Please model this.
Amino acid sequence: MSQSHSTRQSGVEQSGAGQSPKTSAWKHWFVIIPVMLALLGGIAGVILEAVYLADYASHWWNEIPAFYLLFGLGSAVLTLGVALLLQRVLLHPQHGGDEA
Amino acid sequence: MTMDTIATSIVNLPPSVLLAGGALLIPLLPRYFRAAWMILLSVLGLAFLWSLPAVQASEFFVVSATYGDYSLMPYVSDPLGRLFATIFLMVLITGSIYAWSLDDRGESLGTTLYGAGAVGVVLAGDYLTLFIFWELMAIASTWLIWSRREVGSTAVGVRYLIYHLMGGGFLLMGILFQIQSTGSIQLQPFTEGISWGTLGQDVVSNPSGTLGPLFLLLGVAVNAAVVPLHAWLPDAYAKASWTGSVFMSALTTKSAIYVMIRLFPGLDILLLAGLVMAVFGTIYGLLSNDVRQILSYSIIAQLGYMMAAVGVGSEMALNGAAAHAFSHILYKSLLFMCAGAMAVYAGRATLVEWDGSSRDGSTSDDASRDGAGRDGAGRDSQQWKQPDQPLPWGLFALYMIGALSISGVPLLSGFISKPMILESLGKAHHEAGLLILIAASIGTFLHTGLKIPYAMWIKPRLDASSHLIDDATQGDVVEEETSQDVEAPQKHKLPLSQWMAMSLGAGLCLLFGLAPELLYGWLPYPVKFSPFEAYPISESLMTLSGGFFAFVLFRKWLYRPGTVLDLDWMYQKGGQPLRKVVVDTSWSVFGAVDTVVQRMASSMTQWFRGEEGTGPTPAQRFHLAQPSIESAIAWIVGTMLVVGLALLL
Model:
């Protein structure tokens, strides 16, 4: 009985590679915290631009509000899209990665 | 000789000579004394370097010697060289702390000699000194790859050595042409440089004057990993020993950037090369699955930044290139240290591996799968293999300091140099280049700042939580599965020295990020730039925020195990016929000449001995007909000497 109990307990831990059961309670925070930080960063950047850089015009794109936010999203989507297209050609899945 | 003279002589000792001389003692020292000795040598090197008088850009401290008709300057301490030597010695200190428990005399010796080579290159005032330390660096760093003692690393080390000997050969040819053209061996910037429009005519009208800088550029480009001469870098850094890759990430490419700044400021082709490198490194970083390979491709992208700045050539751009090399060494060595630590906990060097069973219970051998964990419809069907044990959050914090630094987040070291380069491009009206570099910076954030930490820390925990929920609802299944696997995973621990080294690296990233004037005071030109202004801060925050949400959208398609084919695969394939012709023809010629020479020698011997008619037996004749490796090497070396002499003449 005790063997079965301890096996079951260690098994629960192992199924999460040694995670404690508390991990599941934290699960949403792994997503929420980074998303909040990214949102706050973006908003702070836009506010900073609106307050301090309203008259700043060094390049043509400075006249577009929140240009860098759009550029960040657009260029990242483009980069990721190109990478995913190239992945089909350049990634050879039959070779495994390097073991430590 | 007075005490003052002796003291002055010691202080004037080049740090490179101090390191190289001190390295000779390393094989004699016991285990922990070796790391302590390496740290002591680096600290002394720093002390000697900074004990020299304060110098201006136009006047620098020189220790010179005369060799033949040439005046050698093995120790020139001007602000640019001193900046690079300082960061090299700093990384030798942090790296030696990281390698404190390393028990490999050869690797410790190789590391110190490698450091001596790199410091020697950036303090050299003449081509010959530069070349000697350049080659020392190539040979010693190869040893760090071989130190891993794996079949794969041996082959990669050979390839790395061939690349660098080839680069060294180009450098030597450039130096010889340069000496022939100018009669001087002093390092001087090529203000006239290479005019690409009239290159063909220039080579004909002034061969040595044109070929000198051209070959020098080619030789340095190999070490600077300029695309398409870069393939050695992701290979070597991913296969080197765990401690070796920390030093390699800092020294070879950055010493090449130093030479680029020194010799080719304002060479327009470098701007284009830099943009290509930035984009190439970013895309390949997103494709790779090996942590150190991703970091290696991100080195190429960051080198692209520096190269573009050298191509712009203004004082602000050159300051930016030097400052970015400095900050890059800080955070990249931290990231490589963290990569080693990750592998200890995860039990693998890769981000993704499938655990062999799919979500529907079938095995990975199922013929309907494509080997990348996708079923026939291209959907993810297999489960990620969990790391051996969860990676600690302390390591996450240290890694993220490095990752956010490289991404150019305000208050960290990358932010004090990257905007300087961007502003220099803006001021030079290279607006397209500016936008490309910003896009590449976002790409760096995607693979180093998001892809790696998501796979190593977040995803395993999310999966583990899902398993726990599944297990709670399927108690019987848990009982059945776990009864087959009672043995707990082995717990790994990092040595304290590695935690200390990573903390020191992270602390330096924070220090220079918070107090950029510390670095700006060391730059070669006066700095008229502050990163803590509204424009760079808002630009950084907005672009990174946009990049983050793009990653959230695309993340599930980014993780595929496998090997990425780099450009070298393509030119190796294309070059096979050429290789066949060159190698096979050379081998046949060597063999034929060898046979003729040996037969002539044999006949002459017999003639001298008067043993005509008693020649070798058929078996001996067969042996003589085979070209031996020794004679082939002798022929190659002899040919090289003749060519070298011809060039000297």
Summary: DSSP finds 24 helices and five strands in chain B. Residues 358-381, 475-488 of chain B have pLDDT under 50 and may be disordered. Chain B touches chain A through 84 residues (CB under 8 Å).
